[in-house]
């Protein structure tokens, strides 16, 4: 009988009710460890719900509930350790349960969180998750498991929001429809030999050995290049076409600080990194509210572009945000949880352009947005 299994056998059986039911994600987490057998199973008395505000589910006890999942049997010590690393930093712990299979009950273990760890969202649906998040989570899992054996699960959990944002950036980059380069070459003309991540935390550095096709048509020699790894970001320059005013924000910036600049505080557009479940437009609106208390009436796309493609994957979605900008719209904002201290300034269009002409604006995305506004200002004012 299944219920007469030994304790060691039970510990090698795990019940997956959430995202680990997705084949590509499970393979990414397990790596070479693999899984001996997978078969459908149900856990009576439980139901899976989204953790509100997160991209994963959790189980709650519920009379009459039935959690649908997969039973993984005969897992190796390495497989269990890898799975525990992937799950462990988010408050999950293994607990003994009895699941139902087509061949009767089987003793196994399942990851549960203590009551109150997460707020309950909607019922979890694997197909819904796969449509909106599978590619992102598989990419994020690859980065997480690259840290296995070098970082603790708690450290990875601390870094995970940025890991997800980096994954989101990668997914967006793969999906974005962009024009061909004049030379006609694409990613297919790059031979990637090896990729390493020698530094990873809030940001990361990726180092690659590769060859790429030369304009002569021949493949070039092997080279060793590196890139600063950040995320996609949304930037917005608020503009009031009726009053002909812009809003600029001022804050301390680490780049000028590290460079040795006498003035680390810079004037910029409103900006923020795109969260895993956001579109660039949603980020632009959220950041305008967080940094300046500003509700935008509309967005006009200025550009989608790399600010420094020679050394960084950072990618900017830059907008003009149509807004009402009375004198009292300026102030100090930002999120205390992110140590933000941001002062907003209301300037006439002419005053802002005067600052640009005098070299007083030293952040390229802001200069670009102002020059774009200069080109489109008459149209925007005529339609206000």
From TrEMBL:
- Decide whether keyword Repeat is in the record: no
Q: Where is the Nudix hydrolase domain?
A: 229-369
Classify the source by domain of life: Bacteria
Task: Report if keyword Hydrolase is assigned.
Answer: yes
What is the reaction catalyzed?
A: ADP-D-ribose + H2O = D-ribose 5-phosphate + AMP + 2 H(+)
Q: Name the coenzymes or cofactors required.
A: Mg(2+)
Alphabetical list of SUPFAM superfamilies matching this protein: Gamma-glutamyl cyclotransferase-like, Nudix
One Pfam match: NUDIX
Q: What class of enzyme is it?
A: hydrolase
Gene Ontology CC, one term? cytosol
What are the EC numbers?
Answer: 3.6.1.13
Give the GO terms filed under biological process for this record. nucleoside phosphate metabolic process; ribose phosphate metabolic process
**For Mg(2+), which residues are the binding ones?**
271, 287, 291, 340
Keywords for this protein = Hydrolase, Magnesium, Metal-binding
Short motif (Nudix box): ranges: 272-294
GO terms (molecular function) for this protein are: ADP-ribose diphosphatase activity; ADP-sugar diphosphatase activity; metal ion binding
Q: Which InterPro entries match?
A: AIG2-like_dom, GGCT-like, GGCT-like_sf, NDP_pyrophosphatase, NUDIX_hydrolase-like_dom_sf, NUDIX_hydrolase_CS, NUDIX_hydrolase_dom
Q: Which NCBIfam families match?
A: nudix-type nucleoside diphosphatase, YffH/AdpP family (TIGR00052)
Q: What does the UniProt function comment say about this protein?
A: Acts on ADP-mannose and ADP-glucose as well as ADP-ribose. Prevents glycogen biosynthesis. The reaction catalyzed by this enzyme is a limiting step of the gluconeogenic process.
Concerning its family, UniProt says: Belongs to the Nudix hydrolase family. NudF subfamily.
Among PANTHER family, the record links this protein to: ADP-RIBOSE PYROPHOSPHATASE, UDP/ADP-SUGAR PYROPHOSPHATASE
Quote the protein name from its UniProt record.
Answer: ADP-ribose pyrophosphatase
User: What organism is listed for this UniProt entry?
Assistant: Thalassovita litoralis
Taxonomic lineage is: Bacteria, Pseudomonadati, Pseudomonadota, Alphaproteobacteria, Rhodobacterales
